[in-house]
Design brief:
88 residues; mainly alpha
Length: 88
């Protein structure tokens, strides 16, 4: 279970001890999607125009935003003489 999943569970248990409805339960995911296991999120904040442009390019190319960004990261790694990861 993730750190935040454990925190949610602790909060749910505390609220149950204080007198929450016995029929009310909170669902906490216990496993990650198979495709995300062993991976970490890498994110950044850009303007809405950049987001829209990247999503449009992905749609035009018939691919996903993740694949498009993976390709960009590989190109950046090559540009700096590093081995590309090739994750898409």
């Amino acid at each position: 279970m993730s750190k935040f999943g454990a925190m949610k569970q602790q909060r749910a248990e505390k609220s149950g001890a204080i007198g929450a409805s016995p029929g009310l339960t909170t669902a906490t995911p216990t496993t990650r999607a198979q495709t995300r296991q062993g991976k970490k999120a890498v994110s950044a904040y850009f303007s809405p125009e950049v987001s829209r442009g990247l999503n449009m390019l992905a749609a035009e190319q018939g691919t996903t935003l993740q694949a498009l960004l993976g390709e960009a990261i590989d190109l950046l790694m090559r540009q700096h003489g590093k081995h590309p990861f090739g994750e898409r």
